[in-house]
Amino acid sequence: MELTEAIRxxxxxxxxxxxxxxxxxxxxxxxxxxxxPSAGNAQGRDFLVLEGKEQTSTFWELTTTSQWWxxxxxxxxxxxxxxxxxxxxxxxxxxxxxxxxDKAGSGLSDPASWPVPFWQIDAGFAxxxxxxxxxxxxxxxxxxxxxxxxxxxxxxxxxxxxxxxxGAVLLGYPAQTDPPSPSTHRPRRAFEDVIHRGHW
Length: 200
Ligand SMILES: Cc1cc2nc3c(=O)[nH]c(=O)nc-3n(C[C@H](O)[C@H](O)[C@H](O)COP(=O)(O)O)c2cc1C
What we know:
- By secondary structure, this protein is α+β, with helices and mostly antiparallel strands.
- It has a single domain (3-175), classed as NADH Oxidase.
- The protein contains 8 helices and 5 strands, in the order ααβααβααβαββα.
- Strands 1, 2, 3, 4 and 5 form a 5-stranded antiparallel sheet that branches.
- Helix 1 (3-9) crosses helix 6 (118-136).
- Residues 11-12, 143-145, 167, 181, 183-184 line the site of flavin mononucleotide.
């Protein structure tokens, strides 16, 4: 698939079949995600890969409530996704990298001095590569925020201090019926409204 086509076709899949992903395919997608750019080439984005019902169920149990599932029955097929990847912003990699000789003058050894947390940007860039790679491979993928249970998630899966999941990427084969989220009914903002040339 051409990159342009993958970008145009990409959308969040919210309904998956229960079919597992071949290991090699998953590894290929993850390897592509590690090609994303990173500040100072710090490469401080890690991926916690949860595969199979036992691991993915633990993820859902820690981060959602039964009321959340009951409120909207259309959410149920999200759980079928055989793989959940947590892209993780690894702050310490940046603090260490920007303390090295070629970067030490930047004064960025303290997280509060960063104009924008590059560790979160880089985790986002890598996530986008993962979403596009999944599209390119004919898979379905969805990015979801994590709104609860983060502390328990870190403890359960042994995620070290200073490492923060920026959300979760569900990966799998799209089910035949995949009703779009109400958010996608919002019209795309007009090109002229979004692009500011020379001055806002
Ligand atoms: C940072 C971010 C957080 C998101 N969080 C959620 C979420 O928690 N649940 C969800 O169903 N979709 C979530 N989405 C998906 C958006 O709703 C979706 O990307 C948007 O409606 C546009 O649809 P499309 O990606 O299918 O084009 C999130 C997307 C982004 C970029």
